[in-house]
Write a structure and sequence with these properties.
The structure holds 3 protein chains of 3 kinds. Chain B is α/β, with parallel strands linked by helices. Chain B has helices at about 10-20, 50-60, 85-90, 95, 110-125, 135-150, 165-175, 195-200, 220-230, 315-320, 330-370, 395-400, 435-445, and strands spanning about 70, 130, 155-160, 180-185, 185-190, 190, 205-210, 235-240, 260, 280, 295-300, 305-310, 375, 385-390, 405, 410, 420-425. Chain C has helices at about 30-35, 80-85, 90, 115-125; strands spanning about 10, 15-20, 20-25, 40, 50, 55-60, 65-70, 75-80, 100-105. Chain C is globular. The chains are: A alpha/beta, B alpha/beta, C alpha+beta. Chains in contact: A-B, A-C, B-C.
C-alpha cells in the first residue's frame, strides 16, 4: 500500500516558478536588429506559451520520478503476447549514439554519408536473406506503417498490370486490428475469413471468397494464436491462382528465424518489426521500424529512394518511375536501423536460429506447465507464444483482467489479454528467448498461487492491484469527459 | 549458444523432456517439410562485442558528423543545440525499454509525460487538443488531410507548393490511396499565391494545407488563408515549426483547425532523418476524429489523479477497418525528448532560441547578399531560413564548402527547378558569428 | 434481458417504434448490455438522408465501438441531443433513449422488420 500513501506526482507545470530557469544560451554574437524591423508586428506572439519555468535539477527530479512509475524490460519479466519483449542489448544503444550516426543531416551530400548508406544497403541484404525476399525498403516507421506501404505496393502492382478492379484484401478473423485498418487506409475493401478448428485459415471459406477482384491476402504465420498454419502452401496456391498476392505480417517472425522463410512459403510481400524481432527497444510506444520486403516483380513499386552501390559508391536512387511514392520524410528511422543491424551482426546465422528455437521452446514450456490452470482452446504445439482462455475462473467471478492486474502486485508485466478476439477471455503469453527456465518457473509458480487466491480469496484478485502507483483508473470517466491537457487554474 | 540466450543445453533438454519431445527439431513439426530451410542462412558471421563496436565505429567514421562541420543545411530538420539532461533522462531503462502504456498502473511515467507533451503542444500551437505524437511531420500532415476529408465528407484538398516537397509526396501517396484529389497551389514572392488559392477553392474543398514558416522559410499570411478556407466550409491545416512558435503568433490564434508539424527541432538529433516525431493538434470539435493515441486524465479507484490512454474506440485495435487511422504506435521516446527539451528551455528559453535563430539568419542573409552574384530570391519576412540565387550551381558550391568543413545549404534545383540555382540557408542558434563569417568569406572567394 | 412487446426490431439489435409515417430508433437492451457502459454516441444531422442498412450512428464504450444501421430509409427529423452529454442513458433506459427519428421514404420496408417474439428467439440463440 506504500504507493497509495504517497501523494500524486505533480505535473511539471505545477512545479513552475515564474522567473526560474534551467537553460543557458550564449549571448547573441551578431549585431541585433529590432524585432519589429524583422517581422511585421501582426506576426508576433503577444503571450508566450505557458511552458514550465524550472531548474535543471527540477527537470531531472521530475522525469526521474516519472521513470520510477514505469515498468521497463530491465525491471522484470514482460511476457506480453504479440509484442516480443526480448532483451534490448546495451551495446546497440551505445553504437547508435556515435556522433557519426547521430549528427548527420539527411540532405548532406552522398559522399559525406557513405557509412549511413552502407548500413542501409547491408541491412537490406540481410533482411532479404532472412525472409527470402529480393529487396527491402527501410522507409516505414512502424509495423502498421509497413503494412500500409506493402499494401500500396500491391495496389501499384495490380494497377500497373491494368487490374485496378482488384479492390479486395482478404484477412483472417484472428488478425491484428492494424491489418484491416491498413487495408482500408490503402483504399481496399476488407473481406474477412474464418479460422478452422486448428486455428488456421479455413480453406473452404477462403476458396469461396476468391474472385478476380481479390488483390491479396494478409496473413500472420504463425498466426495470432501462436500457431503455424500448416496449410500455407495451399493457401498460397489458392491466392496466386486467383491472381492475388500474399502479404506476410512479420509480427510473429521471432518464431521462424533460420527455420523457414516467408519467401519460401509463397509470400510476395513481407514487413518486419525491428522493434520486436531484432531487439530494438520499444521506447514506451515507439519509435519502431517496419521495413517492407518484396519479391523481384514488386521492386519497381517500392517507396523511393532506394540505396544502390554504383562504382564503389553508395547512392540514393529516386529514379523509380513506378514507385508508390513516399510514406514519410527521408529514408526511415535510421537510428533504429543501426540497432537492428548491430543486433543481427552480433548473432549470425546460427545465433538467429537459436533465437527462434529458444523462443518456441520457452513458449511450449509455459503452455505445457499452465494448461492445468487455464483452458487451452487449441491444444497442440505452439510456436513463440501460447494462448489460453481464463474462462474457467469465471465461476469465482474472476476475469482475466483481474488476473493480469494481480500479476502487477507480484512484480510482473502481465501477458496480453482479450486478444486475439476469437478466444474468449484470452490470455496470450510470449516469453521470448532471452528469458531463462528459472524465470519461467517463478512465473508459473506465481500464476499457480494466484490460482489458489482465486479459490480461497477471489476478492483479493478482483480488486487487484494493491501495490501499484495507480490502481484501476476510471476509463469510462476518461473517455466520456476527455481531459487531454493541463490548464492553468484561473485565480 | 549465442549471447542473449539464457537457457543452457542442459535446461533445454529438461524442458523438452517435460513437454514430451526429444529434440528442438520436434518443436517445429507443424511447419511443412517443403518450406523448412535445409541449410543455414547466408549471413555475415557473428561478431563479438568488441569486433562489433570496431566495425560500427569504422562505419560511423565514413560519415561527416555535424559535430565537426558547421551546418547551414535545414529544409525540414535542423541542427539545434541539445541540452545534456535529455540523453541522461531518456536513457533510463524505465522509459526506453517499456512497452506502450496499455497497463496504466505500471505506466504512469510514460502516460504523464505524454499528457505533459500534449499540453505543451496545445500551448505552442494555440489548439485545444493534441495526441501522443505521430511518426514524423510529413505523415502527420497526411493524416491531418485524411481527417479533414472524413470530417467534411469532401474529397478534394488544396496544398501549397510552399509545403515541404517530401511532405507533399507523402500527402500525394496517402490521398491517391483513398481516391482524394490533391491540387497544388503556387507561390509568389516565396509565399502562397492567395489569388491562385481563391480561384481554386470551392464548396467541395475539404481543406487547405500550408506550412509555416514555409519550406523556403517565409512566413505565410495565415489569417487570410484561414478566412478563405472557412468561408468555403473547408478546414484550415497548418504544419508549423515548433521553434518558431516561441515568437510567432500561434496558428490556433490565426484560425487553424488542425495544426501538425515536425518536432525534431525539439531536442532530437538529426539521425540521418529519423526517428523524429510528428505532433498533431486540433480543435475540441475534432477530438474524436483524431488519429493516434491520446492520453487523458482521470482518477483511480482511490480517487488519486492518474492518466490513461483514452478515446480508444477510434483506434485500429477496436475499430479495425473503420478506425480513424491504422497508426498503432507513436514516437513516444521522441515525444519524451521534446517534452524534456521544452521543460528545460521553458517559457523564456524557447523565446530566446527563436530570437537567436531569427537574428543570426538575418545577419547571414545580410552578409551573403552583399557578395557579388548572390541575391535573395524573395523579399517576404522569414524566420530562420532563406533562399538566395548563386552564381554557380549550389551543388558545386556545397562541394567546395566541404573542404572548409562547412555543410552548405539546400539546392532547390531538383525540387523547384523554376528557381534556378536557388540555395536555401538555415541558421540556428548553434551557428556562431565566426562560422557565419567563415561561410560568407568562403562563398565570396568561390569563382 | 428486457424486450418490449409492441415495437419492431432488427437482427442487428436496433428497436423501432413506428408513429404514423415516422420511426423512432434506438438500440436494444441486449445491444447495450453487450457494449458495456457507453461513453460516446455519434449521431447524424437533422435532414440527413439515410438508406436502409446504411450506417446511422456510432455507439462507443471504452473497449468497443459499434455502428448502428438505419433499419428503414428516410430523412432524419430529430436527434436525441440529451445523449451527447449523457450517453449512459442508453444503458439505463435503452427503450426510452432513442437516437433519432426518421421520416420514412419507403414505408413498405416496415414489413421487413421483425417482432418481439422473433427478436427474443434471436437473442437466445446468440447467448
Amino acid at each position: 500500500m506504500r504507493e497509495t500513501m504517497m501523494k500524486e506526482t505533480s505535473l511539471i507545470f505545477e512545479t513552475s516558478q515564474p522567473g526560474r530557469q534551467g537553460y543557458s544560451l550564449p549571448p547573441c554574437d551578431v549585431p541585433e536588429i529590432d524585432l519589429k524591423q524583422l517581422l511585421p508586428e501582426d506576426y508576433l506572439r503577444q503571450t508566450p506559451p505557458a511552458l514550465p519555468e524550472v531548474s535543471e535539477l527540477d527537470t531531472v527530479r521530475h522525469f526521474t520520478r516519472l521513470s520510477q512509475l514505469n515498468y521497463g524490460l530491465d525491471s522484470g519479466f514482460y511476457p506480453l503476447g504479440s509484442c516480443t519483449m526480448k532483451y534490448n542489448p546495451k551495446v546497440n544503444e551505445v553504437i547508435s549514439r556515435f556522433d557519426g550516426f547521430l549528427s548527420i543531416h539527411p540532405y548532406q551530400p552522398e559522399e559525406t554519408v557513405q557509412g549511413c548508406l552502407e548500413i542501409m544497403f547491408r541491412l537490406d541484404k540481410i533482411l532479404s536473406e532472412i525472409t527470402g525476399m529480393d529487396r527491402f525498403s527501410l522507409q516505414p516507421a512502424a509495423g502498421a506503417h509497413g503494412e500500409l506501404t506493402g499494401l500500396l505496393a500491391i495496389k501499384a502492382y495490380h494497377t500497373h498490370r491494368g487490374e485496378s478492379k482488384r479492390t479486395k484484401i482478404v484477412i483472417p478473423d484472428s488478425a491484428h486490428g492494424t491489418n484491416p485498418a491498413s487495408a482500408s487506409m490503402a483504399g481496399f475493401d476488407v473481406v474477412q475469413v474464418k479460422s478452422n478448428s486448428r486455428g488456421g485459415v479455413d480453406l473452404t471459406s477462403l476458396r469461396e471468397v476468391m474472385s478476380d477482384e481479390i488483390a491479396g491476402l494478409m496473413l500472420t504465420n504463425p498466426n495470432t494464436l501462436g500457431l503455424f498454419d500448416e496449410n500455407i502452401k495451399e493457401i498460397a496456391e489458392i491466392i496466386h491462382k486467383a491472381g492475388g498476392l500474399l502479404y506476410y505480417d512479420g509480427a510473429n517472425a521471432n518464431a521462424i528465424l533460420g527455420i523457414t522463410r516467408p519467401g519460401d512459403m509463397g509470400f510476395d510481400v513481407v514487413h518486419l518489426n525491428l522493434h520486436k524481432t531484432f531487439g530494438t527497444p520499444h521506447g514506451g510506444g515507439g519509435p519502431g521500424s517496419g521495413p517492407v520486403g518484396v519479391k523481384k516483380d514488386l521492386i519497381p513499386f517500392l517507396p523511393k529512394p532506394l540505396v544502390e552501390l554504383r562504382n564503389g559508391q553508395y547512392v540514393l536512387d529516386d529514379d523509380l518511375p513506378l514507385s508508390l511514392g513516399k510514406v514519410r520524410s527521408f529514408y526511415g528511422n535510421f537510428n533504429v536501423l543501426i540497432k537492428a543491424y548491430s543486433y543481427l551482426l552480433s548473432l549470425g546465422a546460427e545465433g538467429l536460429r537459436e533465437i527462434s528455437e529458444n523462443a518456441v521452446l520457452n513458449a511450449n514450456y509455459l503452455l505445457h506447465k499452465l494448461k492445468k490452470l487455464f483452458l487451452l482452446p487449441y491444444d497442440r504445439l505452439c510456436m513463440h507464444e501460447c494462448v489460453f482462455s481464463g474462462l474457467n475462473h469465471h465461476d469465482q467471478g474472476v476475469a482475466v483482467l483481474d488476473i493480469a492486474k494481480r500479476l502487477l502486485d507480484y512484480g510482473y508485466h502481465p501477458p496480453t489479454i482479450y486478444f486475439p478476439l476469437i478466444v474468449h477471455e484470452a490470455l496470450m503469453m510470449e516469453p521470448t528467448e532471452t528469458e531463462s527456465k528459472e524465470t519461467l518457473d517463478e512465473f508459473i509458480e506465481t500464476l499457480y498461487s494466484i490460482g489458489e487466491e482465486i479459490k480461497n480469496n477471489p476478492e483479493l484478485v478482483r480488486t487487484a492491484p494493491h501495490t501499484t502507483p495507480a490502481q484501476r483508473p476510471d476509463e469510462v470517466g476518461a473517455a466520456r469527459n476527455p481531459v487531454v491537457r493541463w490548464k492553468p487554474k484561473i485565480r | 549458444m549465442s549471447r542473449y540466450i539464457a537457457n543452457t543445453v542442459n535446461q533445454q533438454n529438461k524442458m523438452l523432456q517435460e513437454i514430451g519431445l526429444n529434440t528442438l527439431e520436434d518443436l517445429f513439426i507443424d511447419i511443412p517439410k517443403e518450406v523448412r530451410l535445409k541449410q543455414n542462412l547466408e549471413l555475415p558471421k557473428a561478431l563479438a562485442e568488441m569486433e562489433l563496436v570496431d566495425h560500427l565505429k569504422s562505419l560511423s567514421r565514413k560519415n561527416w558528423s555535424l559535430e565537426e562541420n558547421a551546418c547551414f543545411l535545414g529544409a525540414g530538420v535542423y541542427d539545434h543545440f541539445i541540452p545534456s539532461v535529455i540523453d541522461t533522462l531518456i536513457s533510463r531503462q524505465e522509459f526506453y525499454t517499456a512497452y506502450t502504456p496499455y497497463q496504466p498502473e505500471i505506466s504512469q511515467g510514460t502516460l504523464q509525460a505524454i499528457f505533459e507533451f500534449q499540453t505543451m503542444m496545445c500551448e505552442l500551437t494555440g489548439m485545444d487538443v493534441a495526441n501522443a505524437s505521430m511518426y514524423d511531420g510529413a505523415s502527420a500532415l497526411a493524416e491531418a488531410m485524411l481527417m479533414a476529408c472524413q470530417a467534411t465528407k469532401r474529397q478534394e484538398i488544396l496544398v501549397a507548393r510552399t509545403v515541404h516537397p517530401e511532405s507533399r509526396e507523402v500527402i500525394r501517396t496517402y490521398a491517391a490511396a483513398r481516391g482524394i484529389t490533391m491540387r497544388e497551389i503556387g507561390y509568389s514572392n516565396g509565399s502562397l499565391d492567395l489569388k491562385e488559392l481563391e480561384s481554386h477553392i470551392t464548396s467541395t474543398t475539404a481543406a487547405i494545407l500550408v506550412q509555416n514558416p514555409n519550406f523556403f522559410g517565409t512566413i505565410e499570411s495565415l489569417r487570410e488563408i484561414g478566412e478563405m478556407a472557412h468561408s468555403n466550409k473547408a478546414l484550415f491545416i497548418v504544419s508549423a515549426d515548433p521553434i518558431s512558435l516561441g515568437i510567432l503568433k500561434s496558428p490556433g490564434e490565426l484560425g487553424a483547425d488542425i495544426v501538425v508539424g515536425e518536432g525534431q527541432s525539439l531536442g532530437n538529433p538529426l539521425s540521418f532523418g529519423g526517428p523524429h516525431l510528428g505532433f498533431f493538434c486540433a480543435t475540441q470539435k475534432l477530438l474524436r476524429k483524431m488519429p493516434g493515441r491520446i492520453v487523458g486524465e482521470t482518477k483511480d479507484k482511490n480517487g488519486k489523479r492518474c492518466f490513461t490512454l483514452t478515446i480508444q474506440a477510434r483506434e485500429q485495435h477496436i475499430r479495425r477497418e473503420k478506425a480513424t487511422s491504422n497508426i498503432c504506435s507513436n514516437h513516444a521516446l521522441n515525444a519524451l525528448t521534446a517534452t524534456i527539451y521544452l521543460t528545460i528551455l521553458g517559457k523564456q528559453g524557447l523565446q530566446e532560441v527563436a530570437y537567436l535563430c531569427l537574428q543570426k539568419a538575418h545577419y547571414t542573409l545580410k552578409q551573403i547578399e552583399s557578395l557579388k552574384g548572390f541575391s535573395p530570391l524573395f523579399t517576404a519576412p522569414f524566420f530562420k531560413e532563406f533562399v538566395v540565387t548563386t552564381p554557380i550551381s549550389p551543388e558545386e558550391l556545397n562541394r567546395k564548402l566541404l573542404a572548409a568543413k562547412i555543410i552548405g545549404g539546400y539546392s532547390l534545383n531538383k525540387t523547384y527547378p523554376e528557381l534556378k540555382n536557388g540555395w536555401m540557408i538555415a541558421v540556428t542558434e548553434k551557428r556562431t558569428k565566426e562560422e557565419i563569417d567563415s561561410l560568407v568569406q568562403r562563398v565570396g572567394g568561390i569563382r | 434481458m428486457n424486450i418490449i412487446k409492441d415495437i419492431k426490431y432488427t437482427v442487428s439489435h436496433e428497436w423501432i417504434r413506428i408513429e404514423g409515417n415516422t420511426a423512432r430508433i434506438g438500440i436494444t437492451d441486449f445491444a447495450q448490455n453487450q457494449m458495456g457502459t457507453l461513453v460516446f454516441v455519434e449521431l447524424p444531422e437533422v435532414d440527413d438522408e439515410v438508406g436502409k442498412g446504411s450506417p446511422l450512428a456510432v455507439v462507443e464504450s471504452v473497449k468497443a465501438a459499434s455502428d448502428v444501421y438505419a433499419p428503414l430509409s428516410g430523412t432524419i427529423t430529430e436527434i436525441n441531443e440529451a445523449l451527447a452529454d449523457n450517453p449512459e442513458l442508453i444503458n439505463e433506459e435503452p427503450y426510452e433513449s432513442w437516437l433519432v427519428t426518421l421520416e420514412l421514404s419507403n414505408p413498405s420496408e416496415v414489413a421487413e422488420l421483425i417482432d418481439s417474439a422473433e427478436y427474443e428467439k434471436l437473442c437466445q440463440q446468440g447467448e
